[in-house]
Amino acid sequence: MCRWMAWFGQPVLIEELLFNSPHGIVDQSLHSRMGAETTNGDGFGLGWYGAGEGPAVYHSVAPAWSDANLRELAAHVESPVFLAHVRAAIGSPVQQPNCHPFRRGNVLFVHNGFINEMAKLRRDLMLAVDPELFAEIHGSTDTEVVFNLALTHGLEQDPIAALEKTIGLIEAVADEHGVQSAVQGTFGVSNGESLWAVRYATLDRPRSLFTSADVTAIKHLYPENERFQSAAADDRMIVSEPFSDLPGVWHEVPESTAVTVGHGGALEERPFRPAA
Amino acid sequence: MCRWMAWFGQPVLIEELLFNSPHGIVDQSLHSRMGAETTNGDGFGLGWYGAGEGPAVYHSVAPAWSDANLRELAAHVESPVFLAHVRAAIGSPVQQPNCHPFRRGNVLFVHNGFINEMAKLRRDLMLAVDPELFAEIHGSTDTEVVFNLALTHGLEQDPIAALEKTIGLIEAVADEHGVQSAVQGTFGVSNGESLWAVRYATLDRPRSLFTSADVTAIKHLYPENERFQSAAADDRMIVSEPFSDLPGVWHEVPESTAVTVGHGGALEERPFRPAA
Amino acid sequence: MCRWMAWFGQPVLIEELLFNSPHGIVDQSLHSRMGAETTNGDGFGLGWYGAGEGPAVYHSVAPAWSDANLRELAAHVESPVFLAHVRAAIGSPVQQPNCHPFRRGNVLFVHNGFINEMAKLRRDLMLAVDPELFAEIHGSTDTEVVFNLALTHGLEQDPIAALEKTIGLIEAVADEHGVQSAVQGTFGVSNGESLWAVRYATLDRPRSLFTSADVTAIKHLYPENERFQSAAADDRMIVSEPFSDLPGVWHEVPESTAVTVGHGGALEERPFRPAA
Amino acid sequence: MCRWMAWFGQPVLIEELLFNSPHGIVDQSLHSRMGAETTNGDGFGLGWYGAGEGPAVYHSVAPAWSDANLRELAAHVESPVFLAHVRAAIGSPVQQPNCHPFRRGNVLFVHNGFINEMAKLRRDLMLAVDPELFAEIHGSTDTEVVFNLALTHGLEQDPIAALEKTIGLIEAVADEHGVQSAVQGTFGVSNGESLWAVRYATLDRPRSLFTSADVTAIKHLYPENERFQSAAADDRMIVSEPFSDLPGVWHEVPESTAVTVGHGGALEERPFRPAA
Question: CA-CA distance, A151 to A138, in Å (whole number)?
Answer without folding.
Answer: 15
